[in-house]
């Protein structure tokens, strides 16, 4: 069962969470009113963004403070939760005032959901720092699954067995979402050994210096994450306004298809390595050097192998996403290279994840944002392929600057060239063998 404590465990969690979200989309379009669905399309990204911002960077900080600084887990938890409770109180006051002024239940329910997003978001970071997949699965997998089940049940009953459609309000959905999230948060707090009063002192310990240090460490990382999200939004905006709709659809479908590879390798690796690197660094420079290079070469080889499989089955994959659309090997290859460079950034930026230097992450992502802006304007003549190339160029810029600054603040001999070379070798061999096998199978059976 040790394998489930590593990236594979997080990959399985991402798979179940994504599946629940996939089921929820058609369910909401079937049951919510038109106004309710329009409101949720706007609210969903706003919930995620506000949840991250109002966490005050404490999610990023708990990884560093617990895994590297070896602080008492009880002190860290109570100090951070105390700060987040003040944020939640502010949200409630603002929501009550907005409710009094505008008489909109949606406003208060939205802010209640923001509060649970903040609290459960912090718990997910805490689970990563503690390497506790029970907590992680409860917060990231059980919540969307229970929301789907509860909403299906309520909608079925109120609609008399799906006889009526599009009759549910957004308030009902927000209320169910809040109740489930609050219930899961309470179960996690009271049901795990971390907070068991028999093993831990239940006295709340608030250390303001701990919170201030965490905020100074985590807020730059939160801003950097927001810049990454804005970079993706900018690319889509430029495509939507300056290229034909069919080119936009081609880019979007290939992007979503490529995400299948990225979500199985890069996302779980970033979640797991985000905490694991601090544990490795705490054991000394030599141990971290060996650990980081071992993870890098294995991750690069795995990503290359899955990319080779993906490119072989690309025509069938694109046809599933959008029947009748022609696949573009060049566009898919450029888009596949973007998560690969992002993975290299995650694996080599340990020097920028230390106290006092996280502010340089903002510099890295700002330069990347400028690069993708200039690149998109210059390469739009090549439509979707040009934008994908600009996106790749921006990520290569981010990797180069991040790598230079990282080894400056924390000298480590990363074997980047060896890892990329191994990935190239695996990709060439795997693509040749898999493609030959696919062609032979097609000739024999089809």
TrEMBL record:
Segments crossing the lipid bilayer: 7-28, 40-63, 75-102, 108-128, 135-154, 174-196, 217-239, 251-274, 295-318, 330-350, 362-382, 388-407, 419-441
Coiled coil segments of this chain: none
Protein name as it appears in the record: O-antigen/teichoic acid export membrane protein
PANTHER family: O-ANTIGEN TRANSPORTER-RELATED, PST FAMILY PREDICTED COLANIC ACID TRANSPORTER
Main location: membrane
Keywords recorded for this protein, A-Z: Cell membrane, Membrane, Transmembrane, Transmembrane helix
GO annotation, cellular component aspect: plasma membrane
Superkingdom per UniProt: Bacteria
Membrane topology term: Multi-pass membrane protein
Compartment annotation: Cell membrane
Originating species: Sphaerotilus montanus
InterPro entries reported in the protein's UniProt record: Poly_Biosynth_Transport (IPR050833)
């Amino acid at each position: 069962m040790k394998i489930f404590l590593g990236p594979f465990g997080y990959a399985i969690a991402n798979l179940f969470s994504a599946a629940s979200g996939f089921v929820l989309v058609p369910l909401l379009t079937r049951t919510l009113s038109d106004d309710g669905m329009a409101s949720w399309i706007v609210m969903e990204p706003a919930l995620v963004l506000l949840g991250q911002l109002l966490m005050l960077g404490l999610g990023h900080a708990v990884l560093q403070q617990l895994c590297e600084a070896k602080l008492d887990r009880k002190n860290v938890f109570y100090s951070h939760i105390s700060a987040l409770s003040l944020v939640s109180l502010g949200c409630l006051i603002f929501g009550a005032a907005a409710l009094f002024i505008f008489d909109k239940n949606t406003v208060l329910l939205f802010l209640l959901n923001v509060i649970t997003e903040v609290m459960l978001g912090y718990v997910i970071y805490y689970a990563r720092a503690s390497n506790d997949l029970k907590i992680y699965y409860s917060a990231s997998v059980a919540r969307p699954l229970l929301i789907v089940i509860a909403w299906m049940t309520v909608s079925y009953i109120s609609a008399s067995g799906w006889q009526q459609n599009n009759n549910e309000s957004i308030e009902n959905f927000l209320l169910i979402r809040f109740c489930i999230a609050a219930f899961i948060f309470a179960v996690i707090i009271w049901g795990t050994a971390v907070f068991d009063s028999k093993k831990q002192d239940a006295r709340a310990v608030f250390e303001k210096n701990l919170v201030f240090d965490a905020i100074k460490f985590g807020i730059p990382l939160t801003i950097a994450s927001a810049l990454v999200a804005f970079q993706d939004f900018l690319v889509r905006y430029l495509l939507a306004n300056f290229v034909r709709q069919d080119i936009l659809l081609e880019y979007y479908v290939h992007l979503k298809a490529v995400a299948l590879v990225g979500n199985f390798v890069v996302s779980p690796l970033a979640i797991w390595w985000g905490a694991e690197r601090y544990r490795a660094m705490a054991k000394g420079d030599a141990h971290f050097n060996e650990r980081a290079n071992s993870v890098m070469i294995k991750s690069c080889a795995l990503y290359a192998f899955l990319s080779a499989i993906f490119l072989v089955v690309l025509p069938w994959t694109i046809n599933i996403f959008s029947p009748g659309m022609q696949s573009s090997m060049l566009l898919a290859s450029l888009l596949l290279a973007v998560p690969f460079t992002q993975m290299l950034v995650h694996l080599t930026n340990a020097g920028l994840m230390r106290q006092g230097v996280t502010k340089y992450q903002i510099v890295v992502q700002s330069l990347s944002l400028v690069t993708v802006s200039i690149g998109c304007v210059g390469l739009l003549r090549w439509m979707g392929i040009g934008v994908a190339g600009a996106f790749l160029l921006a990520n290569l810029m981010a990797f180069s600057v991040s790598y230079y600054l990282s080894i400056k603040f924390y000298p480590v001999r990363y074997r980047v060239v060896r890892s990329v070379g191994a990935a190239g070798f695996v990709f060439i061999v795997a693509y040749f063998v898999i493609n030959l096998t696919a062609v032979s199978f097609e000739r024999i059976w089809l």
